[in-house]
């Protein structure tokens, strides 16, 4: 099959090549035919996150250009964890890692094609490490790693003062062995990962050179950071998870909708498959009228659709329109409504004793500091129940007012709202 010879140029334009081995050799390899490549994902949590998504979309770009992906889920390396600056990782049990391995594998599979000449393959490094003896590992792999080179790795150097276990120190040997194994058994000649993995990536290239006398390639994608240089991977509620149960699609959509103006162009390049001309047009219009947030809206729609599908994107947009635009909130699902109201704040009330009146609900949710303030707000026409103005301070919501059998939406003015869950 033919390959896209412009792939490397596109990766460079999108800012996805932070580092690489010989750039021209890599360009030649990618232009001559379908290259077998791999990217790894360690199951150190029950879900992948934003940083992993960079690797997923990069793998998709390579496959769409005609190259052949091997997606590795680290059932073995996930038992250890790559060294990080913040200190030693907590070692998870085998059962936990196996469960997370299955979950992570299930998250990756929908993004890749498993049909055609360059069909994707899922692999697990636990398959070739489980029966490996310590002596064989040290003789066949360890002898190729000078300790001075291992000590020179940036993360290791930063950890030497605070301390690093031999377990984490040896991680580079395991990841490098993965590359060598896939090179020998599957003909894989290219590996990529995040720039914080650069030492591991080059370790694999060097191991193939030393053990097989052969050439392999590697490149690193950049770490995605906010405008102030801090990591993007965290939100107020935790990591930007891809799992819909850990981060509902509404919250996921809202995250992308609210990225900084300075970063939206970069994120469009990295995370969407929009063509260069369209992205540059969006950037130009955004520079003229950033207050319209057109670029953020396109970004949010594209990435949410990629991860969660068109239906969930539509639900997220409908929820935002209903809450912020005064639309019909009664059409929202309970899951979408819970996610949307979770950011605004919610309270639970016991419905067995009856639902409180609107004045009490406004004070319970904090929309009013006192019952007197709640009554004044109602009298001034500033109180809403399910986006319908409330005129009577003694109004008691009926069971028929509950959305998805559980929820009430209270709003004060145009933008302050809160949720009440009736149990």
Automatic annotation (TrEMBL):
<dbReference type="InterPro" id="IPR002307">
    <property type="entry name" value="Tyr-tRNA-ligase"/>
</dbReference>
<feature type="binding site">
    <location>
        <position position="234"/>
    </location>
    <ligand>
        <name>ATP</name>
    </ligand>
</feature>
<dbReference type="InterPro" id="IPR054608">
    <property type="entry name" value="SYY-like_C"/>
</dbReference>
<dbReference type="GO" id="GO:0003723">
    <property type="term" value="F:RNA binding"/>
</dbReference>
<feature type="domain" description="Tyrosine--tRNA ligase SYY-like C-terminal">
    <location>
        <begin position="357"/>
        <end position="418"/>
    </location>
</feature>
<protein>
    <recommendedName>
        <fullName>Tyrosine--tRNA ligase</fullName>
        <ecNumber>6.1.1.1</ecNumber>
    </recommendedName>
</protein>
<dbReference type="Pfam" id="PF22421">
    <property type="entry name" value="SYY_C-terminal"/>
</dbReference>
<comment type="subunit">
    <text>Homodimer.</text>
</comment>
<keyword id="KW-0648">Protein biosynthesis</keyword>
<keyword id="KW-0067">ATP-binding</keyword>
<dbReference type="GO" id="GO:0005829">
    <property type="term" value="C:cytosol"/>
</dbReference>
<keyword id="KW-0963">Cytoplasm</keyword>
<dbReference type="InterPro" id="IPR002305">
    <property type="entry name" value="aa-tRNA-synth_Ic"/>
</dbReference>
<keyword id="KW-0694">RNA-binding</keyword>
<dbReference type="InterPro" id="IPR036986">
    <property type="entry name" value="S4_RNA-bd_sf"/>
</dbReference>
<dbReference type="InterPro" id="IPR024107">
    <property type="entry name" value="Tyr-tRNA-ligase_bac_1"/>
</dbReference>
<feature type="binding site">
    <location>
        <position position="175"/>
    </location>
    <ligand>
        <name>L-tyrosine</name>
    </ligand>
</feature>
<dbReference type="GO" id="GO:0004831">
    <property type="term" value="F:tyrosine-tRNA ligase activity"/>
</dbReference>
<dbReference type="GO" id="GO:0042803">
    <property type="term" value="F:protein homodimerization activity"/>
</dbReference>
<feature type="binding site">
    <location>
        <position position="171"/>
    </location>
    <ligand>
        <name>L-tyrosine</name>
    </ligand>
</feature>
<comment type="function">
    <text>Catalyzes the attachment of tyrosine to tRNA(Tyr) in a two-step reaction: tyrosine is first activated by ATP to form Tyr-AMP and then transferred to the acceptor end of tRNA(Tyr).</text>
</comment>
<feature type="binding site">
    <location>
        <position position="38"/>
    </location>
    <ligand>
        <name>L-tyrosine</name>
    </ligand>
</feature>
<dbReference type="InterPro" id="IPR024088">
    <property type="entry name" value="Tyr-tRNA-ligase_bac-type"/>
</dbReference>
<comment type="similarity">
    <text>Belongs to the class-I aminoacyl-tRNA synthetase family. TyrS type 1 subfamily.</text>
</comment>
<keyword id="KW-0030">Aminoacyl-tRNA synthetase</keyword>
<dbReference type="GO" id="GO:0006437">
    <property type="term" value="P:tyrosyl-tRNA aminoacylation"/>
</dbReference>
<dbReference type="InterPro" id="IPR014729">
    <property type="entry name" value="Rossmann-like_a/b/a_fold"/>
</dbReference>
<keyword id="KW-0436">Ligase</keyword>
<keyword id="KW-0547">Nucleotide-binding</keyword>
<dbReference type="Pfam" id="PF00579">
    <property type="entry name" value="tRNA-synt_1b"/>
</dbReference>
<dbReference type="InterPro" id="IPR001412">
    <property type="entry name" value="aa-tRNA-synth_I_CS"/>
</dbReference>
<dbReference type="GO" id="GO:0005524">
    <property type="term" value="F:ATP binding"/>
</dbReference>
<feature type="short sequence motif" description="'KMSKS' region">
    <location>
        <begin position="231"/>
        <end position="235"/>
    </location>
</feature>
């Amino acid at each position: 099959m033919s390959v896209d010879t412009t792939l490397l140029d596109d990766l460079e334009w999108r800012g996805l090549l932070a580092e690489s081995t010989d750039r021209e050799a890599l360009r030649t390899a990618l232009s001559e035919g379908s290259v077998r490549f791999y990217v790894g994902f360690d199951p150190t949590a029950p879900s992948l996150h934003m940083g992993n998504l960079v690797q997923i979309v990069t793998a998709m770009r390579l496959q769409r250009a005609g190259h052949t992906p091997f997606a590795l889920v680290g059932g073995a390396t996930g038992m250890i964890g790559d060294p990080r600056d913040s200190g030693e990782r907590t070692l998870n049990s085998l059962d936990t890692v196996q469960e997370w391995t299955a979950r992570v594998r299930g998250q990756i599979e929908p993004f890749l094609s498993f049909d055609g000449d360059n069909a994707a393959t899922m692999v697990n490094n636990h398959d070739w490490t489980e029966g490996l003896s310590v002596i064989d590992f040290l003789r066949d792999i360890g002898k190729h790693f000078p300790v001075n080179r291992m000590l020179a790795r940036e993360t290791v150097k930063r950890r030497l003062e605070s301390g690093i276990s031999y377990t984490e120190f040896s991680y580079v040997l395991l990841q490098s062995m993965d590359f060598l194994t896939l090179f020998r058994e599957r003909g894989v000649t290219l590996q990529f990962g995040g720039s914080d993995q650069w030492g591991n990536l080059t370790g694999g290239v060097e191991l193939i050179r030393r053990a097989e006398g052969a050439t392999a390639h590697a490149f690193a994608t950049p770490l995605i950071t906010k405008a102030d240089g801090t990591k993007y991977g965290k939100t107020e509620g935790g990591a930007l998870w891809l799992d819909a149960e850990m981060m509902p699609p509404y919250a996921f959509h809202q995250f992308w909708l609210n990225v900084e103006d300075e970063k939206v162009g970069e994120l469009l390049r990295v995370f969407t498959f929009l063509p260069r001309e369209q992205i540059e047009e969006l950037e130009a219009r955004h520079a003229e009228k950033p207050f319209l947030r057109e670029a953020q809206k396109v970004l949010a729609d594209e990435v949410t659709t990629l991860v969660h599908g068109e239906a969930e994107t539509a639900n997220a947009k409908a929820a935002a329109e209903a809450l912020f635009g005064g639309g019909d909130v009664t059409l929202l699902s309970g899951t979408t409504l819970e996610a949307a109201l979770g950011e605004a704040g919610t309270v639970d009330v016991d419905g067995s004793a009856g639902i409180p009146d609107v004045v009490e609900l406004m004070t319970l949710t904090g929309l009013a500091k006192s019952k007197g303030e709640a009554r004044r707000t109602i009298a001034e026409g500033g109180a809403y129940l399910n986006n319908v103005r409330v005129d009577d301070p003694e109004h008691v919501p009926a069971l028929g007012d509950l959305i998805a059998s559980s929820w009430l939406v209270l709003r004060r003015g145009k933008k302050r709202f809160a949720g009440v869950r009736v149990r």
